[in-house]
Design goal:
It is a single chain. With 263 residues, the chain is α+β, with helices and mostly antiparallel strands. It is 51% helix and 17% strand. The chain has seven helices and seven strands. The strands form two sheets. A five-stranded mixed sheet has the order 2-4-5-7-6, covered by helices on one side. Strand 6 and strand 7 form a beta hairpin. Helix 1 packs antiparallel against helix 2 and helix 2 packs parallel to helix 6. The radius of gyration is 23 Å and the shape is flat. The N and C termini lie far apart (64 Å). Bound molecules: adenosine-5'-diphosphate (ADP). Adenosine-5'-diphosphate binds next to helix 4 and helix 6. It comes from Paractinoplanes durhamensis.
């Protein structure tokens, strides 16, 4: 309901100031409750489609309207995997928002991480008819959680593959510029409309739900990636032109040279 929890703040002095800070607190609580309500509504909406697909097929099978087949069971299996991915991603997001993701940071070479991830994704890219090239010739040291940063790079690479048509190209580069570590993933894919660019990091947002579903995404990948990078003191930026391509640029603080080595 819309219970108004505010108290009047007329007049001056101690009591008015107290009332004002009480009101600020009440509004913060309301905002956080509103966010929680929206999250639950979003999750319910996202889980409904794979669940009702599953139910429809199972009912069809038990009524004898649908013929059992290998393809059918494969697609039912795929629906359960999608639900599992949504839940796994949500869990990561919830932990991150509670500040509880438990990062284990250590010095790591972003160039090496990017090259290894590129190698890991090359087979999937080849299957999609897309060339994936890494250009990360020199070590670039950052202080980070290797598994989580690998997840970020993996997400950017899978998106680049997913949203690039056959014959396209993906280039991942790691270098230092302006005193920060930079990782850029550039593709020659479908691109993103200018009006949508600000929304790509929103949870469950996708430009084209049908295509996204067909490619098995959850709409949470970039939300999580953005979160992980900002938790590392970095930033993510996206530049895109429809039908030309997209570049995601991650900036991370360089590992400070150890003070011992300076003297
Ligand atoms: P998912 O890929 O699972 O849908 P993401 O959060 O990773 O979720 O991405 C959100 C949306 O941003 C995608 O559905 C797609 O519309 C758009 N997008 C992400 N990366 C790219 C890209 N490289 N090229 C074009 N569109 C992209």
């Amino acid at each position: 309901g819309h219970l108004d929890t505010r108290v009047p703040t007329r007049g001056g002095g101690e009591l008015a100031r107290l009332s004002q800070s009480f009101n600020a607190m009440a509004e913060a609580v309301q905002r956080s409750e509103e966010r929680q309500r929206r999250l639950i509504a979003d999750v319910a909406h996202e889980m409904r489609t794979p669940l009702s697909n599953l139910r429809g097929y199972l009912e069809g099978l038990s009524d004898g309207i649908v013929e059992p087949s290998r393809e059918l069971f494969a697609s039912l299996h795929e629906e359960t995997l999608l639900q599992r991915r949504i839940l796994d991603d949500l869990q990561v997001l919830a932990l991150a928002e509670a500040g509880d993701l438990g990062y284990t940071k250590a010095p790591l070479d972003l160039a090496d991480l990017a090259s290894t991830s590129a190698t890991a994704h090359r087979a999937v890219a080849a299957e999609a008819g897309v060339t994936l090239t890494a250009d990360a010739p020199a070590p670039v040291w950052v202080d980070g959680d290797g598994d989580r940063l690998r997840q970020v790079i993996g997400n950017l690479l899978s998106n680049a593959i997913r949203y690039t048509d056959r014959g396209g190209q993906i280039l991942v580069r790691v270098f230092v510029a302006g005193g920060v570590a930079i990782l850029a993933v550039q593709d020659t894919g479908v691109g993103i409309d200018a009006g949508d660019l600000a929304r790509v990091f929103d949870r469950f947002w996708r430009a084209d739900p049908a295509r996204q579903r067909a490619t098995g995404g959850t709409g949470l990948g970039l939300t999580i990636a953005h979160r992980i990078v900002t938790d590392h003191g970095g930033s993510v930026e996206v530049v895109s032109r429809p039908h030309v391509g997209t570049t995601f640029t991650v900036r991370l603080p360089l590992l400070p040279p150890s003070s011992g080595a300076m003297f």
